[in-house]
């Protein structure tokens, strides 16, 4: 079975076609509230071991819009709470013969591990600090719609890079598509091996934003910082929070992105986040449904009827 586990599961040939499909689904979603039948007879199981608003609900809506039967497992009310392991839970669900398992888990590598244990397609909806490939794909769709072409873009990813699966997937996919990527953040929140990611690294936000077309802000991922020295939010905003003054260092017409959830007044000022002339944040949420429809439809098409 094909899976979608990392951004590297895409390639420079297939990605533009998947983006075109995403564009078509954006148009469809804007014009019609009816469901398609591309996943008719398929069952999609959403298995979220970590909290989610955007990813979980957009996968559910995407699968329903394609005509699939969807089960969103209430993990908090499941036998996971009685001590059942991730693998036992997945193997149990697999015995019910779903077609696609969408998983989010706090352990890096959880989606990959699961894909080796089940007979259905697995989609990684975020595994620890490792990858969040559908987020990177929806971000790419948002950028292509805003700029037309992504190959000439310089994208700054700012903030807590170390704990960010969004950053890792975006770096991989953006570089694959020919964009330049910069990482901007305090030395404590940029990985020590970041220079090997093929990105320019900046520890001064204004300096790093010079010449950028896209400013992608990340939140402090406190849930992955147990025991670490956490900066005060006021101090953090002063140096690393995006406001009008810092944004003015980027190129004229630069657009602002954030995968959500946002912490207003910590990594981003509301004045910037809510300005629809610069912010793509609500577009990203809309693109999330279309992008996930494209991913699910593409996986379904690649199975054929073999099961
Ligand atoms: N961007 C993102 O993954 O948001 P959620 O945690 O709400 O799914």
Walkthrough of the structure:
With 307 residues, the chain is α/β, with parallel strands linked by helices. The chain contains 11 helices and 9 strands. It has helices spanning 14-31, 54-65, 86-94, 110-115, 133-147, 165-176, 205-209, 233-240, 244-247, 270-273, 281-303; strands spanning 43-48, 69-73, 100-105, 121-127, 154-158, 180-184, 200-202, 214-217, 255-257. Strands 7-6-5-8-9 form a 5-stranded parallel beta sheet. Helix 6 links the parallel strand 5 (154-158) and strand 6 (180-184). Phosphoric acid mono(formamide)ester (CP) binds next to helix 2.
Number of strands: 9
Structural class: alpha/beta
Q: DSSP strand (E) fraction? A: 5-15%
Range of helix content = 25-40%
> If strands are numbered along the chain, what order do they take across the biggest sheet?
7-6-5-8-9
What's the total helix number?
A: 11
Mean pLDDT: 94
Shape: globular
Report the uncertain regions: none
Which series of helices and strands comes N to C? HEHEHEHEHEHEEHEHHEHH
């Amino acid at each position: 079975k094909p899976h979608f586990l990392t951004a590297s599961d895409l390639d420079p040939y297939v990605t533009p076609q998947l983006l075109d499909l995403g564009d078509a689904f954006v148009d469809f979603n804007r014009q019609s509230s009816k469901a398609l039948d591309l996943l008719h007879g398929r069952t999609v199981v959403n298995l979220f071991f970590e909290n989610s608003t955007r990813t979980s609900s957009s996968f559910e809506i995407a699968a329903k819009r394609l005509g699939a039967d969807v089960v969103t497992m209430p993990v908090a009310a499941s036998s996971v709470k009685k001590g059942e392991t991730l693998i036992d839970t997945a193997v149990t669900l697999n015995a019910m013969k779903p077609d696609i398992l969408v998983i989010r888990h706090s352990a890096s590598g959880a989606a990959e591990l699961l894909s080796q244990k089940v007979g259905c397609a697995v989609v990684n909806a975020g595994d620890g600090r490792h990858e969040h490939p559908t987020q990177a794909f929806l971000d790419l769709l948002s950028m292509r719609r805003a700029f037309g072409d992504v190959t000439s873009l310089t994208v700054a990813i700012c903030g807590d890079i170390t704990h960010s699966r969004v950053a890792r997937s975006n770096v991989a996919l953006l570089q694959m598509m020919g964009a330049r990527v910069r990482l901007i953040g305090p030395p404590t929140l940029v990985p020590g091996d970041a220079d090997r990611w093929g990105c320019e690294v900046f520890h001064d936000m204004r300096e790093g934003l010079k010449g950028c077309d896209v400013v992608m802000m990340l939140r402090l991922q406190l849930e992955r910082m147990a025991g670490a020295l956490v900066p005060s939010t006021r101090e953090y905003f002063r140096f690393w929070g995006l406001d009008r003054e810092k944004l003015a260092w980027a190129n004229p017409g630069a657009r602002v992105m954030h995968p959500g959830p946002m912490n207003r007044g910590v990594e981003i000022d509301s004045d910037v986040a809510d300005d629809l002339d610069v912010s793509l944040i609500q577009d990203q949420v809309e693109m999330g449904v279309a992008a996930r429809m494209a991913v699910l439809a593409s996986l379904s098409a690649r199975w054929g009827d073999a099961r």
